[in-house]
Every structure is written in C-alpha cells, then in structure tokens.
C-alpha cells in the first residue's frame, strides 16, 4: 500500500469520507443510464489531485472483475441494462478504494492524533493497518520455506497443519508479544494522558478545493443523473 500512496495526499479523514460517499452514491446510480459518468469523473478528479498511482493500479483489477461479472450477468439474464448495472457496481467499489489506497497509514494515524481521538482507537488502528502486510509477509516466508524443504502440497491436511498453519500461528504469537512490548516501550498509553504530535495534519487549501469540486459534482450527479 505504501507504494501506491500519493506523495501529497489529501486530508486523510476526507479521503476516507470520499471513499464512503463514492461507494454509496455509485451503488445508488448503478441502475441509472449515466451512473458511470459520475464514477469516471471521480476517477479523473483523484488522478488530477495526485492519486495517479492508485488510479492506474486499480484499472487492471476493475477490468478483469467487471468483465467476469458482466459475462456472468449477461449469461444469466440476457439483459444489457442489468449487465451495465453490474459493471457500474464493480466500478463503484474500485473507484471508492482509490482514495483509501492513496493514504499512508501513518498519515491517518497522525490525523486522528491531531484531532485528539481516543488513544484506544488510534492504537487499535495503528496495529490493524500493520497486521495484514505483516501476515502476508509471514505467509510468503513460510511458503518459501516449504518449497525449499520439499514439504509437499498444501492440499494435504497433514502438510497444511504441520508445515504451514502451525509455524504461522507460532510466528504471529511471537510477533504479538514483541509488538506489545514495543508499544509499551515507546510510551503508547491508553487513557487521558497528555501527548504531542510530531507532525500535525492540517486541512489545507488543496483539500478545500477538492472538497468543493467533489461535493458539487456529487450533488449534481444525484440531482440530474
């Protein structure tokens, strides 16, 4: 996710809100004839505001997924309008995640800390955003170790349990212990404790311009499309 983040991303919480609004409005407009125009406009807007990496990265996934769903929908219904609606729903999800993909997790956590969000929420989100990349990295390492040692196919229950699942659980338990000690050592305390934010997140002019254009476009899409 870090490689897809924008160098000068928008206000993190506004990016999250943008993704939610795009998903809801995109699903509402899925059955309308020009619903895809709204999604294309949002995609272009995010592209112009620096989210070009995420915008380009989502294209192959959107094309493949939309193609599969369109083929299945048309094969079952033989209705062009239903097929286009299915494509619009998939594209709504793909466009909605762009803003979130372009946010650095550290920026979102800094944003919450700047707004003095409860430390339990900030700490929980910090652990959550780092868990899935860690899980993927550990899974990849275990799979490589299995191939090196010739453990066999994971379809076999004994191989899956002994060579993959058990080492993965042990690694995650050890990592959780290390993480808890690291959090405590670095002074992350839950409760009403005074703390400072090294790099505060502020709402700038660029964020205001994006908010105005996005809000205006969404309102016009809901009213006229």
Give a structural overview.
With 225 residues, this protein is mainly α. It has two domains: 2-107 and 203-224, no CATH class; 119-185, no CATH class. Helix content is 75%, strand content 0%. It is built from eight helices and no strands. It has helices spanning 12-28, 35-48, 52-77, 80-101, 105-114, 119-149, 157-185, 205-224. Helix 1 (12-28) runs antiparallel to helix 4 (80-101), helix 1 (12-28) runs parallel beside helix 8 and helix 2 packs parallel to helix 4. The longest helix is centred in the middle third of the chain and has 31 residues, at 119-149. The chain is flat, with a radius of gyration of 22 Å. The chain starts with 11 loop residues before the first helix and ends with a helix. The mean pLDDT is 80.
Secondary-structure blueprint of this entry?
Elements: H1 12-28, H2 35-48, H3 52-77, H4 80-101, H5 105-114, H6 119-149, H7 157-185, H8 205-224
Helix pairs in contact: 1-4, 1-8, 2-3, 2-4, 2-8, 3-4, 5-6, 6-7
Structural domain count: 2
Which bin fits the share of residues in helices? over 70%
Care to count the β-strands? 0
Mean pLDDT figure:
80
N/C terminus separation: 34 Å
How would a crystallographer describe the biggest sheet? none
Task: Give keywords.
single chain; 225 residues; mainly alpha; 2 domains; 8 helices; flat
Question: What's the short story on this structure?
Answer:
It contains eight helices and no strands. The mean pLDDT is 80.
């Amino acid at each position: 996710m870090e490689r897809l983040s924008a160098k000068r991303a928008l206000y993190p919480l506004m990016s999250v809100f943008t993704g939610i609004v795009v998903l809801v409005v995109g699903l509402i407009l899925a059955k309308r004839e020009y619903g895809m125009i709204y999604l294309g406009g949002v995609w272009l807007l995010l592209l112009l505001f620096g989210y070009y990496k995420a915008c380009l990265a989502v294209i192959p996934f959107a094309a493949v997924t939309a193609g599969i769903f369109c083929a299945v929908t048309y094969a079952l219904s033989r209705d062009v309008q239903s097929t286009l609606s299915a494509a619009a729903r998939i594209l709504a999800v793909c466009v909605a995640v762009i803003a979130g993909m372009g946010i650095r997790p550290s920026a979102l956590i800094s944003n919450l800390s700047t707004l003095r969000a409860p430390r339990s929420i900030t700490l929980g989100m910090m652990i959550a955003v780092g868990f899935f990349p860690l899980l993927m990295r550990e899974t990849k390492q275990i799979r490589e170790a299995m191939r090196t040692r010739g453990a066999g196919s994971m379809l076999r229950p004994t191989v899956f349990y002994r060579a993959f699942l058990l080492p993965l659980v042990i690694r995650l338990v050890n990592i959780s212990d290390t993480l808890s000690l690291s959090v405590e050592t670095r002074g992350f305390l839950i409760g009403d404790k005074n703390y400072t934010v090294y790099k505060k997140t502020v709402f700038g002019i660029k964020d205001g311009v994006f908010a105005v254009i996005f809000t205006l476009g969404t309102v016009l899409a809901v009213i006229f499309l």
